[in-house]
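INFO batch 0412 | record 1 of 1 | parsing
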Amino acid sequence: QVQLVESGGGLVQPGGSLRLSCAASGSIFEIYTMSWHRQAPGKQRELVTTITSSGSTNYADSVKGRFTISRDDAKNTVYLQMNSLKPEDTAVYFCSADIRTKLMGRSDYWGQGTQVTVSS
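INFO prediction complete | emitting tokens
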């Protein structure tokens, strides 16, 4: 079974930076699009950014110019570099990936989420 494990969350001051990582493991044949979502208290989960297997990226307007998504296919890992963090960035961040396993077809897999808190 495929597992996504996130790391890098924590408490940071406004204007600070954090780098989130999400490593996929299991019987992976190919990873297609990888994404980051976030869910703030009392709000719906929202898409933050995506990156395709060809490296094409997309960002929510709220994070453009501040966040950068990247991937390392050799490590089956996606990263989210978050700079100039604001209190409104506080949320649980989830990684996800469209993955084809060695025995099954393509499916979306999700990590457990990691808390990012931006506070003075």
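INFO post-check: The two ends are 40 Å apart (CA to CA).
INFO record closed
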